[in-house]
Amino acid sequence: PRSELWWTLFDPSRAGVASGKLVRPESAAERTPPADAFTRAALRDHEGAGVRWRLSIEPGEAPAFRFAPLAFASGLAKTRYTAAAPAALLSGEAVIGGRTLRFAAAPASVGNIFGFEGARAWRWLHAELPGDGVLEVLSASVPAWPFGWLTGAHLWLDGRHRRSDGLLDLAANGSSRADGLWRFEARLDGLALRGECEQDGERLARF
Questions:
Q1: What's the whole-number average pLDDT of the chain?
Q2: Which residues neighbour 151 within 8 Å (Cβ) at sequence distance 6 or greater?
Q3: What is the CA radius of gyration of the chain?
Q4: Residues 10, 70: Cα–Cα separation, whole Å
Q5: How far apart are CA 145 and CA 143, in angstroms?
Q6: What is the rounded CA–CA span in Å between residue 21 and residue 11?
Q7: Per residue in 54-91, pLDDT tens?
């Protein structure tokens, strides 16, 4: 077992995207909290591989989004995703590629992927809505799932958590991909969600 911490820096004023990962040794991976746990210590301080940061993350009111727990508990997929803090505030300083970046209560989120088998070709949407709203949609190809792409959605809006990731929801939700366009639809407690994401010059996604 191992634990990987991935980071990506996208700056619209510059070409390219900087990214990397921190791979923790097996002994440290065994002490990693469960995928649905939020821990400030895991993200607070880091130095190595040409980057360093001292950050603090304060989770907002939205609860953790645990995607398709029954599907993964049943063994359909051995990989699961949880947004431990889907809406949070980030403060602190990061040095990446010789650049110093400072954050003061910047919108952020924290997500954990646990496992590495049984799901591939992930598509993930995170959208912040007016007020304190947040929407997340996740889609993946799961060979054991007989209904095409497995697609789930969570919505936090006006203090209410709506979700569409039970087994019946997953069978009814739709997702398709073609020519760089990802279309999806789901129902969340009476609300109909339909959307599409399209790459824009391989740097931005339009939702």
A1: 80
A2: 137, 138, 139, 170, 173, 174, 175, 184, 186
A3: 18
A4: 34
A5: 6
A6: 18
A7: 888 888 888 888 888 887 777 777 777 888 889 889 89
Q: How confident is the model at residue 112 (pLDDT cuts 50, 70, 90)?
A: confident
Q: How far is CA 79 from the centre of its chain?
A: 13
- Residue 96 tokens read as 């990446």
Q: CA–CA separation, 154 vs 66, rounded Å? A: 9
pTM of the model: 0.81
CA 43 vs CA 1, 81, 90, 118, 137: distances in Å: 20, 18, 10, 27, 24
